[in-house]
Design a protein that fits this description.
Layout: E1 15-16, E2 18-20, E3 23-25, E4 32-37, E5 40-49, H1 53-72, H2 75-91, H3 93-104, H4 108-128, E6 136-137, E7 144-152, E8 155-159, H5 167-178, E9 182-186, H6 192-204, E10 212-214, H7 219-228, E11 234-238, H8 241-254, E12 257-261, E13 266-270, H9 276-288, E14 298-304, H10 305-319, H11 340-355, E15 359-362, E16 381-384, H12 391-394, E17 401-407, H13 410-417, E18 422-423, E19 425-429, H14 433-442, E20 447-450, E21 466-467, H15 480-483, E22 485-493
Parallel strand pairs: 1-5, 8-9, 8-11, 9-10, 11-12, 13-14, 13-19, 14-17, 16-17, 19-20
Antiparallel strand pairs: 2-3, 4-5, 6-7, 7-22, 15-16, 18-21
Helix pairs in contact: 1-7, 2-4, 2-6, 3-4, 4-5, 9-10
Length: 509
Amino acid sequence: MTPAAAPAESPSAPTYGHFIGGAWREPIGGRTFESRNPARRQEVVGRFAAGGADDIDLAVQAARAAFPAWARTPMPERADILLRAARLLADRKEALAELMTREMGKVLTEARGDVQEGIDMTLYMAGQGRRPSGETVPSELRQKRCFTERVPIGVVGCITPWNFPLAIPTWKVMPALLAGNAIVFKPAEDTPLMAVRLVEILIEAGLPAGVLNLVTGFGEDAGAALVRHAQVPAISFTGSAEVGHAIAAACGGAGKRVGLELGGKNAMIVLADGDLELAVDGALWGAFGTSGQRCTATSRLVVERSAVAEFTERLVARVGQLHLGDGLDPATDVGPVINERQLHRIHGYTEAGQQEAARLLTGGAIATDGALGEGFFYRPTLFTDVRPAMRIAQEEIFGPTTAIIPVDDFEEAMTVANGTRYGLSLAVYTRDLQRAMAAVDRLEAGIVYVNAPTIGAEIQLPFGGTKWTGNGHREAGTTAMDEFSEWKTVYIDYSGRLQRAQIDTHQTG
Protein backbone atom coordinates (compact mmCIF):
# COMPACT_ATOMS: atom_id res chain seq x y z
CA MET A 1 0.00 0.00 0.00
CA THR A 2 2.09 2.92 -1.30
CA PRO A 3 1.46 6.35 -2.83
CA ALA A 4 3.10 5.07 -6.00
CA ALA A 5 0.29 2.55 -6.59
CA ALA A 6 -1.47 4.97 -8.96
CA PRO A 7 -1.41 8.69 -9.67
CA ALA A 8 -3.80 10.88 -7.68
CA GLU A 9 -5.62 11.83 -10.88
CA SER A 10 -6.34 8.20 -11.78
CA PRO A 11 -10.04 7.32 -11.96
CA SER A 12 -9.17 4.10 -10.14
CA ALA A 13 -8.71 6.11 -6.92
CA PRO A 14 -5.48 4.75 -5.41
CA THR A 15 -5.25 3.57 -1.82
CA TYR A 16 -2.72 5.09 0.59
CA GLY A 17 -1.38 3.66 3.82
CA HIS A 18 0.18 5.17 6.93
CA PHE A 19 3.83 6.21 6.79
CA ILE A 20 5.53 4.77 9.88
CA GLY A 21 9.21 4.22 10.55
CA GLY A 22 10.21 5.09 6.99
CA ALA A 23 7.77 2.70 5.26
CA TRP A 24 4.21 2.80 3.95
CA ARG A 25 2.04 0.40 5.93
CA GLU A 26 -1.48 -0.94 5.80
CA PRO A 27 -3.70 -0.05 8.76
CA ILE A 28 -3.59 -2.61 11.55
CA GLY A 29 -7.36 -2.89 11.61
CA GLY A 30 -7.63 -3.04 7.81
CA ARG A 31 -10.15 -0.17 7.63
CA THR A 32 -10.06 2.56 4.97
CA PHE A 33 -12.03 5.70 4.15
CA GLU A 34 -12.49 7.89 1.09
CA SER A 35 -11.53 11.48 0.37
CA ARG A 36 -13.94 13.06 -2.12
CA ASN A 37 -13.92 16.20 -4.23
CA PRO A 38 -16.36 18.62 -2.53
CA ALA A 39 -17.20 20.19 -5.89
CA ARG A 40 -18.16 16.79 -7.35
CA ARG A 41 -19.07 14.46 -4.54
CA GLN A 42 -19.01 11.38 -6.77
CA GLU A 43 -15.29 11.83 -7.49
CA VAL A 44 -13.10 9.84 -5.11
CA VAL A 45 -9.67 11.49 -4.83
CA GLY A 46 -8.23 8.56 -2.91
CA ARG A 47 -8.78 5.88 -0.29
CA PHE A 48 -6.84 6.09 2.95
CA ALA A 49 -5.92 4.02 5.95
CA ALA A 50 -8.26 4.59 8.88
CA GLY A 51 -5.90 4.54 11.83
CA GLY A 52 -6.62 3.73 15.43
CA ALA A 53 -4.80 3.35 18.73
CA ASP A 54 -2.61 0.48 17.51
CA ASP A 55 -1.43 2.44 14.47
CA ILE A 56 -0.72 5.45 16.65
CA ASP A 57 1.29 3.35 19.08
CA LEU A 58 3.36 1.92 16.22
CA ALA A 59 4.04 5.45 14.97
CA VAL A 60 4.96 6.70 18.44
CA GLN A 61 7.44 3.86 18.93
CA ALA A 62 9.01 4.63 15.54
CA ALA A 63 9.31 8.29 16.49
CA ARG A 64 10.83 7.44 19.88
CA ALA A 65 13.43 5.23 18.22
CA ALA A 66 14.37 7.95 15.71
CA PHE A 67 14.39 10.85 18.16
CA PRO A 68 17.83 10.53 19.81
CA ALA A 69 19.81 10.58 16.56
CA TRP A 70 17.67 13.39 15.11
CA ALA A 71 18.04 15.47 18.28
CA ARG A 72 21.83 15.11 18.03
CA THR A 73 21.84 16.20 14.38
CA PRO A 74 23.19 19.77 14.19
CA MET A 75 20.46 22.31 13.63
CA PRO A 76 22.04 23.64 10.40
CA GLU A 77 21.95 20.11 9.02
CA ARG A 78 18.28 19.78 9.94
CA ALA A 79 17.69 23.14 8.28
CA ASP A 80 19.35 21.96 5.07
CA ILE A 81 16.70 19.23 4.76
CA LEU A 82 13.98 21.86 5.14
CA LEU A 83 15.64 23.96 2.47
CA ARG A 84 15.61 21.03 0.06
CA ALA A 85 11.96 20.40 0.92
CA ALA A 86 11.10 24.05 0.19
CA ARG A 87 12.68 23.75 -3.25
CA LEU A 88 10.71 20.57 -3.97
CA LEU A 89 7.49 22.29 -2.86
CA ALA A 90 8.26 25.18 -5.20
CA ASP A 91 8.98 22.83 -8.11
CA ARG A 92 5.62 21.10 -7.60
CA LYS A 93 3.55 24.14 -6.68
CA GLU A 94 1.08 23.96 -9.54
CA ALA A 95 0.45 20.22 -9.22
CA LEU A 96 -0.02 20.57 -5.46
CA ALA A 97 -2.40 23.50 -5.91
CA GLU A 98 -4.55 21.62 -8.41
CA LEU A 99 -4.66 18.60 -6.12
CA MET A 100 -5.62 20.82 -3.19
CA THR A 101 -8.52 22.30 -5.15
CA ARG A 102 -9.75 18.81 -6.00
CA GLU A 103 -9.45 17.56 -2.45
CA MET A 104 -10.45 20.61 -0.42
CA GLY A 105 -12.38 22.82 -2.88
CA LYS A 106 -10.79 26.26 -2.59
CA VAL A 107 -10.36 28.14 -5.85
CA LEU A 108 -7.10 27.49 -7.66
CA THR A 109 -5.65 30.96 -7.07
CA GLU A 110 -6.16 30.49 -3.33
CA ALA A 111 -4.75 26.97 -3.45
CA ARG A 112 -1.60 28.38 -5.05
CA GLY A 113 -1.43 30.84 -2.16
CA ASP A 114 -1.79 27.99 0.35
CA VAL A 115 1.11 26.13 -1.25
CA GLN A 116 3.16 29.32 -1.40
CA GLU A 117 2.59 29.86 2.31
CA GLY A 118 3.90 26.35 2.91
CA ILE A 119 6.95 27.14 0.77
CA ASP A 120 7.52 30.40 2.63
CA MET A 121 7.19 28.78 6.04
CA THR A 122 9.60 26.00 5.11
CA LEU A 123 12.13 28.50 3.76
CA TYR A 124 11.72 30.69 6.82
CA MET A 125 12.33 27.85 9.25
CA ALA A 126 15.30 26.67 7.19
CA GLY A 127 16.75 30.15 7.63
CA GLN A 128 16.21 29.95 11.38
CA GLY A 129 18.54 26.96 11.48
CA ARG A 130 21.63 29.17 11.41
CA ARG A 131 20.40 31.89 13.71
CA PRO A 132 21.24 32.13 17.43
CA SER A 133 18.98 29.87 19.47
CA GLY A 134 20.00 31.00 22.93
CA GLU A 135 21.94 33.71 24.71
CA THR A 136 25.04 34.13 26.84
CA VAL A 137 24.33 35.95 30.09
CA PRO A 138 26.92 37.37 32.53
CA SER A 139 27.24 35.68 35.90
CA GLU A 140 27.48 37.60 39.16
CA LEU A 141 30.33 35.26 40.19
CA ARG A 142 33.91 35.07 38.98
CA GLN A 143 35.14 32.32 36.69
CA LYS A 144 31.61 31.25 35.78
CA ARG A 145 29.82 31.20 32.43
CA CYS A 146 26.06 31.13 31.92
CA PHE A 147 24.11 30.50 28.74
CA THR A 148 20.78 29.21 27.49
CA GLU A 149 19.91 26.90 24.63
CA ARG A 150 16.83 25.39 23.05
CA VAL A 151 16.41 21.63 23.28
CA PRO A 152 13.74 19.43 21.68
CA ILE A 153 10.79 18.10 23.65
CA GLY A 154 10.74 14.56 22.21
CA VAL A 155 7.80 13.10 20.29
CA VAL A 156 5.32 15.76 19.20
CA GLY A 157 1.79 15.01 17.99
CA CYS A 158 0.63 17.40 15.24
CA ILE A 159 -3.11 17.44 14.50
CA THR A 160 -4.09 19.70 11.61
CA PRO A 161 -7.35 20.93 9.97
CA TRP A 162 -8.59 20.70 6.40
CA ASN A 163 -8.98 24.37 5.46
CA PHE A 164 -5.27 25.03 4.86
CA PRO A 165 -4.12 21.47 4.18
CA LEU A 166 -0.54 22.34 3.28
CA ALA A 167 0.17 25.67 4.97
CA ILE A 168 -0.96 24.78 8.49
CA PRO A 169 0.93 21.45 8.58
CA THR A 170 4.10 23.35 7.65
CA TRP A 171 3.44 25.79 10.51
CA LYS A 172 3.71 22.84 12.90
CA VAL A 173 5.92 20.26 11.21
CA MET A 174 8.74 22.56 10.10
CA PRO A 175 9.53 24.25 13.45
CA ALA A 176 9.03 20.95 15.28
CA LEU A 177 11.56 19.27 12.98
CA LEU A 178 14.00 22.16 13.16
CA ALA A 179 13.88 22.02 16.96
CA GLY A 180 14.94 18.36 16.81
CA ASN A 181 11.68 16.62 17.64
CA ALA A 182 10.26 13.46 16.10
CA ILE A 183 6.66 13.74 14.94
CA VAL A 184 3.44 11.78 14.66
CA PHE A 185 1.28 13.72 12.17
CA LYS A 186 -2.50 13.21 12.08
CA PRO A 187 -4.08 15.33 9.32
CA ALA A 188 -7.78 16.06 8.90
CA GLU A 189 -9.75 13.19 7.41
CA ASP A 190 -11.08 15.51 4.67
CA THR A 191 -7.63 16.29 3.23
CA PRO A 192 -5.31 13.32 3.81
CA LEU A 193 -3.78 13.31 0.32
CA MET A 194 -2.21 16.73 0.79
CA ALA A 195 -0.57 15.35 3.95
CA VAL A 196 0.73 12.34 2.02
CA ARG A 197 2.30 14.65 -0.57
CA LEU A 198 3.98 16.76 2.13
CA VAL A 199 5.44 13.68 3.80
CA GLU A 200 6.70 12.37 0.45
CA ILE A 201 8.51 15.64 -0.17
CA LEU A 202 10.17 15.68 3.24
CA ILE A 203 11.34 12.10 2.82
CA GLU A 204 12.67 12.91 -0.65
CA ALA A 205 14.50 15.89 0.88
CA GLY A 206 16.43 13.50 3.12
CA LEU A 207 14.49 13.28 6.40
CA PRO A 208 15.64 10.12 8.24
CA ALA A 209 13.26 7.21 8.75
CA GLY A 210 11.01 7.50 11.78
CA VAL A 211 11.47 11.23 12.33
CA LEU A 212 8.15 12.02 10.64
CA ASN A 213 5.30 9.50 10.85
CA LEU A 214 1.90 9.91 9.22
CA VAL A 215 -1.27 8.27 10.55
CA THR A 216 -4.47 9.10 8.67
CA GLY A 217 -7.93 8.60 10.10
CA PHE A 218 -10.63 10.19 12.19
CA GLY A 219 -10.31 12.42 15.21
CA GLU A 220 -12.23 10.19 17.57
CA ASP A 221 -9.96 7.26 16.71
CA ALA A 222 -6.46 8.28 15.63
CA GLY A 223 -6.55 11.84 16.99
CA ALA A 224 -7.84 10.88 20.43
CA ALA A 225 -5.31 8.04 20.68
CA LEU A 226 -2.47 10.40 19.84
CA VAL A 227 -3.58 12.89 22.51
CA ARG A 228 -3.89 10.15 25.13
CA HIS A 229 -0.63 8.34 24.36
CA ALA A 230 1.56 8.36 27.46
CA GLN A 231 4.78 8.64 25.43
CA VAL A 232 3.79 11.78 23.52
CA PRO A 233 4.74 14.73 25.76
CA ALA A 234 3.48 17.49 23.46
CA ILE A 235 0.45 18.07 21.24
CA SER A 236 -0.10 20.86 18.72
CA PHE A 237 -3.71 21.20 17.54
CA THR A 238 -5.60 23.51 15.21
CA GLY A 239 -9.37 23.10 15.03
CA SER A 240 -12.61 23.85 16.83
CA ALA A 241 -12.77 25.35 20.30
CA GLU A 242 -14.84 22.46 21.63
CA VAL A 243 -12.34 19.82 20.55
CA GLY A 244 -9.40 22.00 21.58
CA HIS A 245 -10.70 22.44 25.09
CA ALA A 246 -11.20 18.69 25.44
CA ILE A 247 -7.61 18.18 24.27
CA ALA A 248 -6.39 20.80 26.74
CA ALA A 249 -8.16 19.03 29.60
CA ALA A 250 -6.65 15.67 28.63
CA CYS A 251 -3.17 17.12 28.22
CA GLY A 252 -3.39 19.11 31.44
CA GLY A 253 -4.27 16.05 33.43
CA ALA A 254 -1.36 14.14 31.91
CA GLY A 255 1.18 16.95 32.30
CA LYS A 256 1.64 17.37 28.55
CA ARG A 257 2.54 20.54 26.72
CA VAL A 258 -0.28 21.60 24.38
CA GLY A 259 -0.47 24.34 21.76
CA LEU A 260 -3.95 25.33 20.57
CA GLU A 261 -5.29 27.50 17.74
CA LEU A 262 -9.06 27.37 17.96
CA GLY A 263 -10.65 29.79 15.54
CA GLY A 264 -12.34 33.14 15.88
CA LYS A 265 -15.35 35.37 15.42
CA ASN A 266 -13.55 38.16 13.66
CA ALA A 267 -14.88 41.65 13.14
CA MET A 268 -14.06 44.33 10.61
CA ILE A 269 -14.94 47.79 11.90
CA VAL A 270 -15.92 50.33 9.24
CA LEU A 271 -15.95 53.89 10.56
CA ALA A 272 -17.76 56.62 8.67
CA ASP A 273 -14.52 58.39 7.79
CA GLY A 274 -13.04 55.23 6.24
CA ASP A 275 -12.59 54.50 2.54
CA LEU A 276 -15.87 52.68 1.91
CA GLU A 277 -14.87 51.17 -1.43
CA LEU A 278 -11.69 49.80 0.11
CA ALA A 279 -13.75 48.49 3.03
CA VAL A 280 -16.14 46.73 0.64
CA ASP A 281 -13.18 45.12 -1.12
CA GLY A 282 -11.89 43.97 2.27
CA ALA A 283 -15.25 42.67 3.44
CA LEU A 284 -15.77 40.71 0.22
CA TRP A 285 -12.36 39.03 0.43
CA GLY A 286 -12.38 38.59 4.20
CA ALA A 287 -15.87 37.09 4.39
CA PHE A 288 -16.00 34.96 1.25
CA GLY A 289 -12.40 34.00 0.52
CA THR A 290 -12.01 30.23 0.99
CA SER A 291 -15.83 30.17 1.18
CA GLY A 292 -15.50 31.69 4.65
CA GLN A 293 -13.64 28.59 5.86
CA ARG A 294 -10.84 30.42 7.64
CA CYS A 295 -10.34 30.88 11.36
CA THR A 296 -9.63 34.53 10.47
CA ALA A 297 -12.71 34.98 8.23
CA THR A 298 -14.52 38.31 8.50
CA SER A 299 -17.80 37.06 9.92
CA ARG A 300 -18.87 40.37 11.51
CA LEU A 301 -18.99 43.80 9.87
CA VAL A 302 -19.28 46.46 12.57
CA VAL A 303 -20.31 49.59 10.67
CA GLU A 304 -20.82 53.11 11.97
CA ARG A 305 -24.50 53.87 11.53
CA SER A 306 -24.07 56.93 9.32
CA ALA A 307 -22.21 54.77 6.78
CA VAL A 308 -24.38 51.64 6.96
CA ALA A 309 -26.72 52.41 4.05
CA GLU A 310 -24.01 53.23 1.52
CA PHE A 311 -21.71 50.46 2.67
CA THR A 312 -24.52 47.89 2.56
CA GLU A 313 -25.69 48.94 -0.91
CA ARG A 314 -22.18 48.62 -2.33
CA LEU A 315 -21.52 45.29 -0.61
CA VAL A 316 -24.81 43.68 -1.67
CA ALA A 317 -24.09 44.60 -5.28
CA ARG A 318 -20.62 43.04 -5.10
CA VAL A 319 -21.79 39.86 -3.36
CA GLY A 320 -24.37 39.40 -6.09
CA GLN A 321 -21.57 39.33 -8.68
CA LEU A 322 -19.66 36.48 -7.03
CA HIS A 323 -19.55 33.35 -9.17
CA LEU A 324 -20.09 30.08 -7.33
CA GLY A 325 -18.51 26.98 -8.83
CA ASP A 326 -15.71 24.44 -9.12
CA GLY A 327 -12.44 25.92 -7.90
CA LEU A 328 -10.64 24.66 -11.01
CA ASP A 329 -12.82 26.92 -13.19
CA PRO A 330 -10.99 30.27 -13.65
CA ALA A 331 -14.35 32.08 -13.53
CA THR A 332 -15.10 30.86 -10.00
CA ASP A 333 -14.91 33.30 -7.08
CA VAL A 334 -16.34 31.06 -4.35
CA GLY A 335 -15.87 27.29 -4.26
CA PRO A 336 -17.70 24.58 -2.32
CA VAL A 337 -17.62 24.04 1.42
CA ILE A 338 -15.79 20.98 2.63
CA ASN A 339 -18.53 18.38 3.15
CA GLU A 340 -22.25 17.77 3.53
CA ARG A 341 -22.18 18.01 7.31
CA GLN A 342 -20.67 21.48 7.15
CA LEU A 343 -23.09 22.50 4.38
CA HIS A 344 -26.08 21.82 6.62
CA ARG A 345 -24.37 23.36 9.64
CA ILE A 346 -23.94 26.62 7.73
CA HIS A 347 -27.58 26.58 6.65
CA GLY A 348 -28.58 26.00 10.27
CA TYR A 349 -26.99 29.35 11.13
CA THR A 350 -28.98 31.03 8.34
CA GLU A 351 -32.15 29.67 9.91
CA ALA A 352 -30.99 30.81 13.35
CA GLY A 353 -30.34 34.33 12.06
CA GLN A 354 -33.81 34.56 10.55
CA GLN A 355 -35.41 33.21 13.71
CA GLU A 356 -33.66 35.95 15.70
CA ALA A 357 -35.03 38.60 13.27
CA ALA A 358 -31.83 39.46 11.44
CA ARG A 359 -32.59 40.61 7.88
CA LEU A 360 -31.27 38.38 5.11
CA LEU A 361 -30.09 40.51 2.20
CA THR A 362 -28.72 37.88 -0.16
CA GLY A 363 -27.82 34.18 -0.27
CA GLY A 364 -28.89 31.98 2.58
CA ALA A 365 -29.46 28.82 0.55
CA ILE A 366 -27.83 25.56 -0.48
CA ALA A 367 -27.12 25.74 -4.21
CA THR A 368 -28.64 22.80 -6.06
CA ASP A 369 -29.00 24.02 -9.64
CA GLY A 370 -27.05 22.38 -12.44
CA ALA A 371 -23.51 21.30 -11.68
CA LEU A 372 -23.70 22.95 -8.25
CA GLY A 373 -26.01 20.18 -7.15
CA GLU A 374 -23.16 17.72 -7.59
CA GLY A 375 -21.16 19.34 -4.79
CA PHE A 376 -21.44 21.10 -1.45
CA PHE A 377 -22.15 24.68 -2.46
CA TYR A 378 -23.63 27.40 -0.27
CA ARG A 379 -24.61 30.77 -1.66
CA PRO A 380 -22.66 33.72 -0.22
CA THR A 381 -24.84 35.06 2.55
CA LEU A 382 -25.18 38.56 4.00
CA PHE A 383 -27.31 39.59 6.97
CA THR A 384 -28.01 43.07 8.29
CA ASP A 385 -29.83 44.52 11.31
CA VAL A 386 -27.84 42.08 13.40
CA ARG A 387 -27.60 42.58 17.15
CA PRO A 388 -24.34 41.73 18.95
CA ALA A 389 -25.94 39.02 21.10
CA MET A 390 -27.36 37.00 18.18
CA ARG A 391 -25.90 33.57 17.53
CA ILE A 392 -24.71 34.60 14.06
CA ALA A 393 -22.76 37.41 15.76
CA GLN A 394 -21.27 35.24 18.49
CA GLU A 395 -20.64 31.73 17.15
CA GLU A 396 -18.10 30.63 14.56
CA ILE A 397 -20.00 29.62 11.40
CA PHE A 398 -17.04 28.68 9.21
CA GLY A 399 -18.86 29.31 5.98
CA PRO A 400 -19.63 32.08 3.45
CA THR A 401 -21.78 34.10 5.84
CA THR A 402 -21.21 37.54 7.33
CA ALA A 403 -23.32 39.92 9.38
CA ILE A 404 -23.60 43.72 9.39
CA ILE A 405 -23.90 45.11 12.93
CA PRO A 406 -24.69 48.86 13.03
CA VAL A 407 -23.11 50.92 15.83
CA ASP A 408 -23.47 54.56 16.82
CA ASP A 409 -19.83 55.55 17.23
CA PHE A 410 -16.21 54.50 17.80
CA GLU A 411 -16.81 53.60 21.46
CA GLU A 412 -19.65 51.22 20.64
CA ALA A 413 -17.60 49.73 17.80
CA MET A 414 -14.83 48.85 20.26
CA THR A 415 -17.31 47.26 22.66
CA VAL A 416 -19.01 45.19 19.96
CA ALA A 417 -15.77 44.09 18.31
CA ASN A 418 -14.39 42.90 21.66
CA GLY A 419 -17.70 41.38 22.71
CA THR A 420 -17.17 37.72 21.86
CA ARG A 421 -15.33 34.88 23.56
CA TYR A 422 -12.81 34.75 20.71
CA GLY A 423 -9.82 37.01 20.11
CA LEU A 424 -8.04 36.06 16.90
CA SER A 425 -8.23 38.82 14.29
CA LEU A 426 -9.88 42.25 14.27
CA ALA A 427 -9.69 45.08 11.72
CA VAL A 428 -10.59 48.73 11.49
CA TYR A 429 -11.10 50.99 8.46
CA THR A 430 -10.55 54.68 9.11
CA ARG A 431 -8.60 57.63 7.71
CA ASP A 432 -8.14 59.07 11.20
CA LEU A 433 -4.68 58.12 12.50
CA GLN A 434 -5.60 58.88 16.09
CA ARG A 435 -8.61 56.56 16.01
CA ALA A 436 -6.63 53.90 14.14
CA MET A 437 -3.97 53.85 16.84
CA ALA A 438 -6.60 53.93 19.60
CA ALA A 439 -8.19 50.87 17.99
CA VAL A 440 -4.83 49.09 17.86
CA ASP A 441 -4.45 49.73 21.58
CA ARG A 442 -7.95 48.65 22.55
CA LEU A 443 -8.89 45.76 20.27
CA GLU A 444 -8.61 42.43 22.12
CA ALA A 445 -7.04 40.14 19.56
CA GLY A 446 -3.77 38.48 18.70
CA ILE A 447 -3.86 40.13 15.25
CA VAL A 448 -5.07 43.64 14.39
CA TYR A 449 -5.30 45.14 10.91
CA VAL A 450 -5.75 48.78 9.92
CA ASN A 451 -7.39 49.34 6.53
CA ALA A 452 -7.13 45.66 5.63
CA PRO A 453 -9.49 42.69 6.24
CA THR A 454 -9.11 40.17 9.02
CA ILE A 455 -7.33 37.66 6.76
CA GLY A 456 -3.83 37.88 5.32
CA ALA A 457 -1.34 36.91 8.04
CA GLU A 458 2.31 36.57 6.98
CA ILE A 459 4.54 33.71 8.15
CA GLN A 460 7.37 35.89 9.50
CA LEU A 461 5.08 37.23 12.26
CA PRO A 462 3.43 35.39 15.17
CA PHE A 463 -0.03 33.94 14.45
CA GLY A 464 -2.57 33.22 17.15
CA GLY A 465 -5.09 34.82 19.45
CA THR A 466 -6.44 35.48 22.91
CA LYS A 467 -9.40 34.31 24.96
CA TRP A 468 -11.04 31.18 23.44
CA THR A 469 -8.84 31.35 20.36
CA GLY A 470 -5.82 29.73 21.95
CA ASN A 471 -3.76 29.10 25.05
CA GLY A 472 -0.90 31.55 24.65
CA HIS A 473 1.26 29.84 22.04
CA ARG A 474 1.87 31.49 18.68
CA GLU A 475 2.59 29.82 15.37
CA ALA A 476 4.90 31.19 12.67
CA GLY A 477 7.52 33.89 13.17
CA THR A 478 10.41 33.49 15.58
CA THR A 479 7.92 32.48 18.28
CA ALA A 480 7.12 29.24 16.43
CA MET A 481 10.09 27.56 18.08
CA ASP A 482 8.70 28.27 21.57
CA GLU A 483 5.90 25.73 21.12
CA PHE A 484 8.27 22.97 20.03
CA SER A 485 11.30 23.37 22.28
CA GLU A 486 12.33 23.62 25.91
CA TRP A 487 14.75 26.14 27.34
CA LYS A 488 17.80 24.77 29.08
CA THR A 489 19.91 27.06 31.27
CA VAL A 490 23.56 26.04 31.68
CA TYR A 491 26.03 27.21 34.38
CA ILE A 492 29.74 26.36 34.03
CA ASP A 493 31.90 27.08 37.08
CA TYR A 494 35.66 26.75 36.46
CA SER A 495 36.80 28.48 39.67
CA GLY A 496 37.73 25.23 41.39
CA ARG A 497 35.85 26.17 44.56
CA LEU A 498 32.28 26.28 45.84
CA GLN A 499 30.64 29.57 44.94
CA ARG A 500 27.19 30.35 46.30
CA ALA A 501 25.11 32.70 44.19
CA GLN A 502 23.34 35.54 46.05
CA ILE A 503 25.37 34.71 49.16
CA ASP A 504 29.12 35.09 48.54
CA THR A 505 28.88 38.51 46.93
CA HIS A 506 26.14 40.04 49.09
CA GLN A 507 27.35 39.61 52.68
CA THR A 508 26.20 42.37 54.99
CA GLY A 509 28.96 41.86 57.58
